[in-house]
Known about the structure:
The chain has 205 residues and is of the alpha+beta class.
Amino acid sequence: MNIAELKFDENGLIPAVVQDAVSKEVLTVAYMNEESLKKTLETKETWFYSRSRQKLWHKGETSGNTQTVQEIRYDCDKDALVVLVIPNGPACHTGQYSCFSKENGGQVNGSRFDIINKLEAVIAEREAERPEGSYTTYLFEKGLDKILKKVGEEASEVIIAAKNRSHDELKWEAADLLFHLLVLLREQKLPLDEVLKVLKERHET
């Protein structure tokens, strides 16, 4: 990235939209100046400029909830950034996964795959916040081996349901398999988009 090409405002700042590189959820919006952007590029962790405190701040310097930078993009006018990160904990000072409310004012005519997007976001939220009593929290805390075991179990149950010719049984087991597969992808920090990209490439060839 050529920082000299970017257009900082009259205060020497540029807005930065921070997005989860895996779930694609917007986590927060902050500002960077040239120095904080350089530090972000050098350390591969997010640094911002606090307008209220008039100084640089390293995200997670007190909470430990750092953000590992995967990619930085700028818009066509070169006056705004999108920072794709792997969050190491909640992004918001309130302890929430994202600074943005889930309220959407009612969604109309959503895609039939909207639930996959929502589920991926919830799984990312559970990994960051680790709410007590959540099954998804339990899976992340038990670790990779437990998640792999569940994926294997659910795959076997899908096979049994199909052999039984039971649509009711099969839809439940298939849903369980998809859920645990999404948890596995999150644990591996592999975006679902990458899997879809492979499917698209195979289809086109």
